[in-house]
Amino acid sequence: MTSAALKNTRLVVALLAAGAMGGASVSALNALHGSAVAAPTSAAVATTGSVASTPVALPDFSRITERHGPAVVNISVTGTTKVSSGSPLAQGDGDDDDDALAGDPFFEFFRRFQQGQGRQGRGGQQEVPTRGQGSGFIVSSDGIILTNAHVVRDAREVTVKLTDRREFRAKVLGADPRTDVAVLRIAASNLPVVTLGKTSELKVGEWVLAIGSPFGFENTVTAGVVSAKGRSLPDDSTVPFIQTDVAINPGNSGGPLFNARGEVVGINSQIYSRSGGYQGVSFAIPIDIAARIQKQIVANGKVEHARLGVAVQEVNQTFADSFKLDKPEGALVSTVEKGSPAEKAGLQSGDVVRKVNGQPIVSSGDLAALIGLAAPGDTVKLDVWRQGSAKEITARLASADEKSAQAAGKKDSPSQGKLGLALRPLQPDERQEAGLDSGLVVQQASGPAALAGVQAGDVLIAINGTPVRNVEQVRSVVAKADKSVALLIQRGDSKIFVPVNLG
Q1: Which of the residues are catalytic?
Q2: φ, ψ for residue 45, nearest 5 deg
Q3: 3-state helix, strand, coil in the chain (%, to 5)
Q4: Residue 234: what pLDDT?
Q5: Cα 250 from Cα 213, distance rounded (Å)
Q6: Distances (CA, A) of 425 to 55, 303, 314, 331, 407
Q7: CATH no. of 60-301
Q8: How far does Cα 24 stand from its chain's mean position?
Q9: Which of 446 and 134 is assigned the larger pLDDT?
Q10: More confident residue, 481 or 409
């Protein structure tokens, strides 16, 4: 064989191998879903020393769409929202373009479409008419629909449009911002419904399908695979999200995520984007969670979440070495609330929670997700690492609503109310690692401090030039301050003064 012929042969093999890659990567998945496996052909190419892959058929997305698509609905929302007169939302261009800004890459799909100038409100605010679109799906033939809570937030009127072009005024039975799940009802009967699957049976790499109304284009179908499970996002949510690479855009929010058997396994909720559009990273709420929220809302009109009563932080390699852990996993307990279920169960600051009811805790967010999705009154078994040995602790969870009511009944402390910082003392090993004699760790930053750039994990060394040794000292200084304070912050090996305008 000539060198040219050999070169051409290698090129053909490379092209065939590249073309067969997609089929080979899904063979196991299709076998799981009962997809038809194509018979090997004589044209299959095998390289020397390797076994030829058996070509397989992809899931039949058209059948899923034909069978379950009629149960997917388009949701239109109208309402008003109050914004400052200088906000971009108050300065819309008057058309249907999206004038909202996505400051956070985990932005919500429910975007504000501006109409007119609005009415001037008190304090330099305007009441701006808003409208938006989202998706949803029918879970009961008598008109129960699931969607995202953010789709119907601030809604005065919700309209549901079916695939047969019928339209209904919908009633919002309830919404749970914590999980971003809402339940609607329309006055109709004998409606097509979806089949619910189990998120626990979903596998990474499995084919999934989304149906929704991106940018208002109704009944749009997109497909991809499950990229990961149990994702904790940097927001207030306690949901262990399903990550996919399914194309999701504004308007898909609230729509169903199907597996290859045509079962709904999630509600499409968020994307990660630096451009404001789809970039290959989408997140869905597990349907197991959504179904539980639906039952509570239909039965009681509200949702109750559980509370353990601890503040936790990540276990990095340094902490793992210090606590003699075999790997940097778990949730390090930094604070135990007085009177909380955690205190009653015997949890202590410095404990590392490694499992909840046998489920591993890899990152600190896993603990919040598992506890937040339990019910008040549930008993949980915690596997804890304390001072070099394992312990088992049982805690009876309380209601998160009780904590919220207690907090609402108390006057904000100066350090958190005006400054916006939740602080705790440095542990001895942390002082040694940071090379400090004193200081307070920032557990959470909000309000003025967050706007100034202070972050969780920073160490507050001094306030207005005076070294800080306890939280009460910070409260005292902030209470006496008029307009601003100067914070000396250490972040890593760097120290910087941060001016904070108290307003």
Answers
A1: 150, 180, 253
A2: -105, 130
A3: 25, 35, 40
A4: 67
A5: 8
A6: 61, 35, 17, 18, 22
A7: 2.40.10.120
A8: 32
A9: 134
A10: 481
